[in-house]
């Protein structure tokens, strides 16, 4: 299987610096089932092509973990793995072009962030779902696609088309971003992987997809296929992608006038303070920050002696590690350290670790979920975990008209699946309260306008006393 990357940006032979591979040498790297060879079929200042050729050992496939499907008894011995671009190609890209993938260029670091015209050719790519899937994956990222589908057998045209394509992709883009797209999307096209999938794959996907996967319209298919349809892992990845912080445009709306000299509080800080105040007011002692991110709310909660135990939950292990370092949990006195716990988990699945809390906060979380997944969150939090008090904040869509140069109908962040008006939010929260036996109050958060309301809106749910007795 062969992958070529060509650029015509003058001087084109700078591609050798970016890839950390000298054009005058043929280089090789070992992969799990063979070797990857890197060479340059064409090198000049006007045009340069780097080729990545995989030499897969069929016997090595059988001896290693290899594909373990069960379509037929001889699949380990009779399969297309040595001949098509698949997860083996992704592994080869990561091994052969690791420096370029990580944005490093020792000799010419200024090239890393330069968008260049690239043409990528995959000699044979397996695409389950046909050309429609291929285009759904690459076109939203800006690629021009030239795809030639191959017949199952030219001697028997009645057998129809195969799932194999010769694909040419063209785009003006940085090399680092190009390689990240190929690394993730090649096995997604094939819808298979040659190795065992575990929680580490979620972190790989989030790292390689950072900056583009969050806004991709086919992200759910990408996540599902990349993680081989393992629901729990896919749920973790999607929860991270759908719970990013809001864009800076939101913060710009609360900047102080020039004559005000006092420090201006960021809108997200106002939300966190409001959530803390409501949990204090409710008398909660055991509290949970659901979708805690890097734990800025937890830091506020730790300062209050009323909170005897504080839990932070997020789906990303990497984010929790950052939070642990920022909070300096390891350096805390024993009694302080016993008050706090960070756990990894998804809000769209029932989790018994969330039961028994007096209060919980979901600060700017719900708008990052698609409506069907929002329903799963509702059950996980309000039916199963059932905290005594639940504080929920979300943007007020009516306020968007006050943002300077903000197009009508555009959401504040491209990760948002919806943004509700005050009426819509109140209808949702009221229905939820009735369904799960809570009372609910609504409050404004942040700068408020007489006509369109506040920048953010908040619902405070209190479990009805009859339910507390029954529990």
Automatic annotation (TrEMBL):
Domain Hen1 N-terminal: 1-241
Key word Methyltransferase present: yes
A GO term, aspect molecular function: metal ion binding
InterPro entries according to UniProt: 3'-RNA_MeTfrase_Hen1_bac, Hen1, Hen1_N, Hen1_N_sf, Methyltransf_12, SAM-dependent_MTases_sf
Catalysed conversion reaction: small RNA 3'-end nucleotide + S-adenosyl-L-methionine = small RNA 3'-end 2'-O-methylnucleotide + S-adenosyl-L-homocysteine + H(+)
GO BP term (any one): regulatory ncRNA-mediated gene silencing
This protein's record includes keyword S-adenosyl-L-methionine: yes
Pfam families in UniProt: Hen1_L, Methyltransf_12
Enzyme Commission number, as recorded: 2.1.1.386
EC class (word): transferase
Entry keyword set: Magnesium, Metal-binding, Methyltransferase, RNA-binding, RNA-mediated gene silencing, S-adenosyl-L-methionine, Transferase
Domain Methyltransferase type: 289-390
Gene3D superfamilies with a match to the protein in the record: Hen1, N-terminal domain, Vaccinia Virus protein VP39
Cofactor(s) it depends on: Mg(2+)
Domain of life of the organism encoding this protein: Bacteria
Family as reported in the entry's similarity comment: Belongs to the methyltransferase superfamily. HEN1 family.
Protein name: Small RNA 2'-O-methyltransferase
